Amino acid sequence: MTEVETPGELICPASLIFDDADVFAKLDAQIAGAADAKAIRAATVETLKAAQATGRATIADAFAKDPFAAYPLTKSYTYLTDGLVRAALYVAKTHLHPLPTPTESERLALLAVGGYGRGEMAPFSDVDLLFLTPYKITAWAESVIESMLYILWDLKLKVGHASRTVKDCLRLGREDFTIRTALLEQRFIAGHQPLAEELDARLWKELFKNTAREFVEAKLEERSDRLKRHGGQRYLVEPNVKEGKGGLRDLQSLFWIAKYTRRVKTVAALVDAKVFTEEERDDFAAAENFLWAARSHLHLVANRANEVLSFDMQVEVADRMDYRDHDGRRAVEHFMQDYFRHATRVGELTRIILTDLEAQHVKQEPSIVTMLRNARRKKLKPGYKLRQNRLDVAGKKTFLRDPLNLLRVFEEALRTGYLIHPDLMRLIDANLHLLNEKTRWNKDASKIFLDTLLKHGNPERALRRMNELGVLGAFIPEFGNIIAMMQFNMYHSYTVDEHTIQTISVLAQIERAELVEELPIASSILKEGINRRVIYVALLVHDLGKGQKEDHSILGAKLARQIAPRLGLNSEECETVEWLVRYHLLMSDMAQKRDIADPRTVRDFAKAVKTVKRLDLLCVLTVCDIRGVGPDTWNNWKASLIRALYRQTRRGLENGMEALNREERGSEAKKNLRAALPDWEAKALRAETTRHYPPYWQGLHVTAHVDFAILLRGLDTDEVRTELTPDEDRDATRVCFAMADHPGIFSRMCGALALVGANVVDARTYTTKDGFATAAFWIQDSEGSPYEAAKLPRLKGMIEKTLKGEVVARDALKSRDKVKKREAQFRVPTSITFDNEGSEIYTIIEVDTRDRPGLLFDLTRTLANANIYIASAVIATYGAQVVDTFYVKDMFGLKFHSKSKQAGIERKLRTAISQGVERAQK
Q1: What digits encode the pLDDT tens for the residues 831-847?
Q2: Residues near 706 by beta carbon (within 8 Å), at least 6 away in sequence
Q3: Are 858 and 886 in contact (CB under 8 A)?
Q4: 899, CA 20 to 30 Å: which among 333, 701, 735, 742?
């Protein structure tokens, strides 16, 4: 048995993790009584399993007491794995295939490669082994390797292995960069050490030497492909700790490149090589330690190799790392904010390494930014120079004499299209104190900042760089609070600061006429012209109130009142920015949470907006805000709601509110129906146009009126008819029901739709004068899309079965009404409000709570059981949160004005919600 070398600082005494002497003695004792090879292997596995379990438990306990001790943890798992691997080799060579006098060709060296070779292992990391032989592998060596691998597999280790000669390693390393990278981190474990030393020497002499450029380019291409696969975004709210942007693989890639090009053995050596400053080395170590800690806790929580910080895992990892709720934010949000700050720093360190590579001529210098590549390059302003095709300053002292240069440099980079040199980034980072209160109130500083936003067509590039370097937070301190701030919900795809930059990116795209087809209203508004200073500043500050106990719109408006004057806006512009921030959710809420077919909705919205100018600004801000939430948040459904609300409100503001009355719109709808049914006799048309009450004519499109006219024609009182129609303009499938009216019909329809797994996004029901119920529901599948045409017949059949009573929705839903594990940690407090002003004839009940498949059915059944008539329902979903809005009246057709009646309804709804949650969690 060879002396065991400790791979580094351990989390607890080595003998508690794996006691070599004790384990090897137990193996010899157990094997002594074994009758054959099978018994020897069984005895070995039993002994090593016990040692493995003890070692793993010891490491996990020590880590629980010191949850940031990531470096000692990775070394401890490496030490435990080394012990198990050595023990397996010992049994294979000594007891299973003894060879007292091996020949030269029967020499065998065992090496660890990859992350295991580097000595960095998470709890469930792969174990990558290289069996090295001097010549072609012999039968004896093959037997030893096979026996050893079976033992390791029985220990449930995920083993990757290769058997090669030194020549094989050199040849394959030339052909395959993955193999070459693994060999870069080979480490001797046991066996014939001179063979391992020969491999190391020849790798550096014959493979690594003079091939740095090809290795670097391959690693950078590999990184680019990897990031594309994992979203390409540093600020995705469910990041991959190992493979995502700013994750461990990025740090490892940096070290591989540094090791290959400079032959350094530690990150600290990059300080001596003048690549990193001491502060940057410390940042590298801090980011690496944090990411390893998060990854290791993730493995331990999942009890398997798991690299994705999914929502449910984030809560548990944050708790294990001793994060706690404070300042109005959850522990998980503080944890993720730290995660994203480290990920951002990894990005900065990546740029520094890449620039160093260019200086060594092992990486191509960057070309001018793609957008300007074919344009004539602009001449640099005085005080700047090009270095490695990046923007740098001619003189540091001169640059720092004027604090405004810390802002000018970003406009210059944007104007010319050049990237900023990392040395200049370091200079900026070290002098952020120059952006003090005096600088913030400087008129020239405000002009430079606004010019950066307004003059060059792609301000998001400058803003993102300013944010990463701390300039944005220094110049606008209020912005500092939202940097890397994660909102723990399923709705937002980005951190708050990245969301803000995304919204400005959308605005710039609209201005460049890139989204005319997708966003015709917003594009036409910008083409006609609005105050660009106001809209850009409003978007920049609209979410600065997030993360506090106070309503973020109200707090944000207060902050806007302070920031807008500093940025040089006049009093009228300041007032408009403040109003936009205070009401930046108004249009979205009105469109998604209210029935915009109700004239009162549009009148109330118009009353709040007051002018077409403000309507235009708010519409553009709303569109940018929703699109900036995530890549899939904006859809035709939301677009159609925003468009309809904008057009009706503008019509009311320009032509007077009487233009919105029901009678006028009803007459127009009847006229459209007659035109759509040219084959119908006048008598049948007259019967159809007189059988409905006014709200029916205002609330539906003519295509729905046509469907209902056909469904109602000749309908018997015991008959149920349905029609499913793809509504591509709204990204939904429209389901029209027609049947005899009776209490609770709306709830039964909701139950039928819940049973087929449909998500209801909008619904409205009407009663005809001759006693029939007509209801239109807009539904989407689980992906938020309209149902495929091929699935509609089955869907229709299931819905009709439920409505006829052949399937009881309440019973059938029990097994389907579940909350997914990934979504279980979201907290959504229930809020129920009553509004008697938002509609002329209905009370509006708004239920804001945690979403689940059977919720709408539970709520509508509760209302039906209380003899409450539901005229329409509007459903707005925000990830795990849902706002269900019901337009209702009592059995006498009256509103619910009585506070005691409202309290009684609220009690029943809350009971239905809590019972449903209990059922879903069982």
Answers
A1: 999 999 999 899 999 99
A2: 673, 676, 677
A3: no
A4: 742
